[in-house]
Fold this protein.
Amino acid sequence: MINSPTDVVEAAFRHYRSQNREAAFALYAEDFSFTSPRDDHIDKEAFFERCFPTADRFTEQRLLHVVPADEELVLVHYEYELTSGGRYRNVEAMTVRDGLIREVQVFFGGGV
């Protein structure tokens, strides 16, 4: 059962890794916005077309820290290894309101 913003965020990462699009899609608000160094405020549809199907690029993804910053904002620090080689760390600032992910901002880190 998903009870808190951190539960929602952890579920979203699990569904991404398993590529369970239907379960993940239900966790994102209709007015969802995603921003990263490669994407500027794309909507839910674009996120699920462009970003969600990329899990096969990773051999591993490990959540290092999932920390609530306030009642809605969850900071996620994770490490991943690409199938092409290389290990990296990123941080995501995820806003969860009323049980739905409203916004994600991704900050790319360097190699580990």
Observations:
- The mean pLDDT is 97.
